[in-house]
Amino acid sequence: MQSPRERSEVRPRAGWMVMGERGRPSALDVCRVLAVFLSLFPSVSLQCKILKCNSEFWASTSSSGPEEEFCTALRAYNGCVRRTARTCRGDLAYHSAQHGIEDLMSQHNCSKEGPTSQPRARTPLPPPPPPLLPDSQERSDGPEVCHYERSLIRNTAPPNYTHCGFFGDPHLRTFGDDFQTCKVEGAWPLIHNKYLSVQVTNTPVVPGSLATATSKLTIIFKNFQECVDQKMYHAETDELPAAFADGSKNGGDRHGANTLRVVEKVPGQHVEIQARYIGTTIVVRQVGRYLTFAVRMPEEVVNSVEEGDDQDLYLCLHGCPANQRINFRNFRARATEAHGAGRSSSSTQGFTYQAAKAKCKERLPVEDLYFQSCVFDLLSSGDINFTMAAYYAFEDVKMLHSNSKRYHIFEKDAFMSNTAAQRGKDSLSLVFLHLLAVLLWIECCTVHL
After folding, report:
1. Is 176 helix (H, G, I), strand (E, B) or coil?
2. What one-character DSSP code corresponds to residue 151?
């Protein structure tokens, strides 16, 4: 029996498909998960054609067969995926397929060299019904390692929980409490660590405007010890499921399966995913036509970075890239000037600045950045539903954030944070220049001597 703290050292291997010796799946099960995952990325099928590779592989392995036949299909699939590298390199589905192929080859002892002709397709067999447990049932034999707080060493400091939120047009509150408004059109990763990955897809709200909002969300919970099987949750506009992609509502058939659960709070509008084995709670909502995301996660899990992984693009950790950020003040100044001069503006969509403020005040009485986000969204889109998106985002902060003094973030806080960051960069630049000057002086003296 491993000690509680050892749980953080024994983690699943990086990648899309991580399977333990205890519950090694059949090729059929693996292929089903792969097929479901990739089929949920229609944008991929249009841009990088990886769905075609997946379909061919699925047709070849939809029923059990000789190991040599499976390896032949897997090598063909690997070749097909490699040919999509140029157009798919920046997509989560492409990298997931790469990791899945690598793990499958290792599991089945497949050689990378050999025949790649596709075997004859077979008729798919119907999947077995997933094991389901009532939401209220908690397995009494779940090991301590599957309960994050129980697994911690006693008499140690309680874990530090952090929060990230993504809502509206879209607005981002990072794990470090930075607040940003971003463009980020298309698919972007929010979170990626050794336990889970989250990706959002943002689409334009109004043609010709910078305003975008989240229309799709995919969450992958990775296979973890004796606790949970790998699970995927996928939501999009007008489809907020009350279960994982495979139809189950918990983490599978392991001892700690119910430490990962999907709980439907309001049908079609509000879902909560509880991942107790990593101390994490995720809230997904549909407000109007778009989705919102909020998460509460221990700092230890946030920082469980894959070895060699570049975390710079993960929005919840480092925020939006500088070239994807929108300046609140500049946008507000332009909108106020346009209405003050009596001009119509495509960016204000029928709301004056004062009318937008009055509407947002009904739900958000404190003029913090959630209030300012509401005003911004009404001016940029004209969609009244964004008022509720900002309201629910703040309600989720009150439920998920561990520090009640940090619920509200004000514009001056964000400005001071950015100023401090810039000063830090300036200080480093001065130190570097000073060091360079010293080195030049030493070089100069050496030459003269």
Report:
1. coil
2. T
